[in-house]
Specification:
The chain is an alpha/beta fold. It has nine helices and nine strands. It is about 50% helix and about 15% strand. The chain is elongated and about 70 Å long.
Length: about 260
């Protein structure tokens, strides 16, 4: 009964609901509009496939396996790439909250700082002003790092970048000004391939330190990964965006 409930639930909530709608439209139209019915059924099948965690993992796994996390990381600074934030939202230390990816990256930086005691460069905007308050990943991240015990003088900020390419370009200037040679680069594992390409183009010899993995390395705990879900669709979207970003970087397109 539990499995049946899970299947029904997945078909009554988007994106499963959209697939079910197209499938039913196709089945009811088989008699009179055969070509349109087949098209609807094909669309339903496509929605189901791209919305499963199983399919998303197929796309994410090569991205997350591109760079192993070093067991004994070494560097003369830590660069953390932003992953978004909210404005005006309450937090323990002030206004503005980091999104999940940003929080995972920031926590990893704090833990590495406790081991290495090297400066942390927070790279990420966009610098957003709401009323008399300015927000950016760098500003919110700095506030949170101080709350976690990192000294203010060990935190550098780059609050203006809007994408990974700008992360690399703007960070490179700050790193050169501080004579940093081999920074540790922290970003989500699925994003590391694109980040390393952009930092290499900015002539920064970064040491990758991927965090925030989405795909299990051992046996999956998700017994329903073959069902359509919004999480599966989100993860598929993340992976496709990364592959497009990698291709754009390799051919020299900005973004």
């Amino acid at each position: 009964m539990f499995v049946v409930i899970k299947i029904i639930e997945s078909l009554l909530i988007p994106p499963g609901l959209f697939a079910l709608t197209f499938a039913l439209a196709g089945l009811f139209g088989l008699g009179r509009y055969r070509w349109l019915a087949k098209t609807n059924i094909a669309i339903a099948l496509a929605i189901v496939i791209v919305s499963t965690q199983w399919f998303a993992n197929l796309l994410l796994r090569p991205l997350e396996s591109a760079y192993p996390q070093p067991k004994d990381p070494r560097g003369d600074a830590i660069v953390v790439l932003g992953g978004g934030f909210t404005t005006g939202t309450p937090d323990i230390t002030g206004l503005g909250n980091l999104y999940g990816d940003s929080s995972v990256r920031l926590l990893a930086a704090a833990m590495l700082y406790r081991r290495l005691h090297i400066p942390i460069l927070l790279s990420g905007g966009p610098n957003t002003r709401v009323g008399d308050h300015a927000y950016s990943f760098a500003a919110i991240g700095r506030r949170d790092l101080i709350a976690l015990g990192v000294p203010n003088q060990m935190i550098w900020q780059e609050p203006n970048s809007r994408d990974t390419q700008e992360n690399a370009l703007f960070s490179a200037a700050i790193l050169r000004a501080h004579h940093v040679q081999t920074p540790l680069l922290i970003t989500s594992a699925y994003h590391m391939r694109r980040a390393m390409l952009d930092f290499a183009k900015a002539q920064v010899k970064a040491v990758p330190y991927p965090v925030g993995y989405l795909v299990n390395r051992t046996a999956s705990h998700d017994a329903f990964g073959w069902l359509p879900s919004m999480q599966g669709l989100d993860d598929t979207t993340i992976a496709v965006r990364e592959y497009l970003g990698i291709a754009a970087t390799q051919i020299g397109v900005r973004g």
